[in-house]
Structure of FAD-binding domain-containing protein:
Amino acid sequence: FPCPSKQTKLIIDFLIIGAGVSGLSCAIALRRASHRVVVVEREKEIGQSDVGRGVRLPPNLSKILYRWNLKSEVSAFAAKSKQIQIYRLDTGDRLGDHYWDDEVLRETQGEFLFGHLADLRKMMYAVAVDQGATVRLATTAVSVDPERHAVTLGSGETLTADVVIGADGAFGLVRPMLLNEQ
């Protein structure tokens, strides 16, 4: 599924820690450019920690998914939003309604959608794998060696790549490691 106009002559090996929306987006985009991609994800099944969690897909995200020819996949789980009602969190008082302006949506070339996070991640996982990314589930990264571009897994195995991308979230391995080094 590489995008012919986006293919690169220099093929790079990428290792992505985390198969959330960010990690899977990276995997899809990199595969579209013909790079080699391995994603490691600690969950045994994509979306298992997301059950019941809603997600909004603003126009800047839906536009990208649509440009990747995923409109029918997105439409299978997401509903288009015409408006939202806004309430105060602390009191529950209704503040009003917000309508999505047609001109703004035309300009952004997307739609404002709502769905379930698990469904979004499952769809993106299927696309990434279909496009040739290797996604290793039930695989926990326990350390990163930035100098060697190496990631050690809970099993003791060490993976290396040209580039390591930390997409494991605010409470994952990579962010605290980077913040401690600053």
